[in-house]
Write a structure and sequence with these properties.
Strand content: 15-25%
Family: Belongs to the YkuD family.
Helix content: 25-40%
CATH architecture of the largest domain: Beta Barrel
Domain L,D-TPase catalytic: 45-181
Distance between the termini: 37 Å
Signal peptide: 1-23
Structural class: alpha+beta
CATH superfamily of the largest domain: L,D-transpeptidase catalytic domain-like
Number of helices: 5
Strand order of the largest sheet: 3-2-1-8-4-5-6-7
Low-confidence stretches: 1-7, 11-34
Protein name: L,D-TPase catalytic domain-containing protein
Order of helices and strands: HHEEEEEHEHEHE
CATH topology of the largest domain: L,D-transpeptidase catalytic domain-like
GO molecular function: carboxypeptidase activity; transferase activity
Number of strands: 8
Amino acid sequence: MPRNIAVPVIASLILFAAAPLRAETPLQSSALVSSSVEAALPLADKIIVRKAERKLFLMSNGAALRTFKIALGLRPEGHKQFEGDFRTPEGSYRLTRRNPNSEYFLSIQVDYPNEQDVKRARKQGLRPGGAIMIHGQPNTPKKSRDYYANVDWTEGCIAVSNSDMVEIWLMTPPDTPIEILP
């Protein structure tokens, strides 16, 4: 199965694997299946990332719905200052654009840089960088599976396993706030 498989197909597979058998026609529409998966999963109203713990929490009304192990930028300590510093930003942002066809298994963009980030970088005569995402593993891995699971390896993004990325994708509505803590 290709690694960049369309999300509705993934959602259908999750539902099929998890759902009890029912007496329905075998040719259900993918819209029905996708809406059933979305209805079965609670939606997060916030994401909290704790960099020091290497954890991402999907939150709803102050309670954690799910917790995921994460990998960060190659230099994880401290707030992202400029393009190419290999740091993951810290602060309050929002989830914006979704890309089911990225270089990584699914990706959701974090709206870094904000106005403060741009000002800080420009004061130093630098560009703030961008394209900070929550994403799965590379579609074309260059390292072992163990490496991606146990090392901070991104250029500043927040990486999770592919199966975790499916849950994050399905459980976060557009414009979900994300708080990235040291």
